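Just wondering, does anyone understand what follows?

——
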Amino acid sequence: MVFDGDMSQRLTIMAVHAHPDDEVLNTGGLFARYAEEGIRTVLVTCTNGEQGDGPGGVKPGAPGHDPAAVAAQRLGELRASAGLLEIEHVELLGYRDSGMDGWDANADPRAFANVPVAAAAAELAALIEKYRPQVLVTYDEQGGYGHPDHIQAHRIAVAATESTGIPDKLYYAAMPREPAREMFAAAKANGMDMGDFEPPEDFGTPLAEITAVIDVAAYTRRKVKALEAHGSQGDGAFFLGLPEAIQNLILGSEYFVRQHNRVADAPDRETDLFAGLR
């Protein structure tokens, strides 16, 4: 990347994500939109994704699953995705993927979820000092859906925000409850096999609690391409299997809950995470 002068003078957004591919669904449009607007975009990926699927979908612990090879594959896919989303800077913390809650990998002392928060937060704080983002985005305290690495990413992002005092705004990415229900209903209506899955009543964040809705409809095709770039994983298969019209509906907006703000002119309800900063 080309050094672009005084880092403190340029509007910058930083998103702190747990794994390669997490950058797409909740912040892919944000990255693409803000890059097009000339804002510096920074992605921090905390783990290398070793607990992802191996060749042919082989799962961790099964014959043929090589964690090092999976990590190399996923980091290559991350580079492709970042290019599609025009993410200017990708920073890797390089921690080991902890796996889903309850997996054997949770017990590995090298796993990201087992790293002392202060140690990992100090690494992130150094990146915040380097890029000086006015806006920082991460997960909520539940990590969105309880993944240990997402929860740890939340912890270190909050700690680094507090210790540096640099970000003017801190947001948690959110899955909006009511649109999520519409998404599942539309998927079923279009013949998607949902098995016995029914979203629980408390699935997602009520729209009334969401403080920012960002229109990224112009970037839905780019988000789809970025999901496709992570082809070794099945995470995006559900979205990629939906008809284009439903993809556009689901991927065309991104939702956030503001947790920290020191911008006097920022409205309570936002359509721009940089509201009051430009």
Observations:
- Strands lie at 12-17, 40-47, 89-95, 135-138, 169-174, 212-215, 253-261.
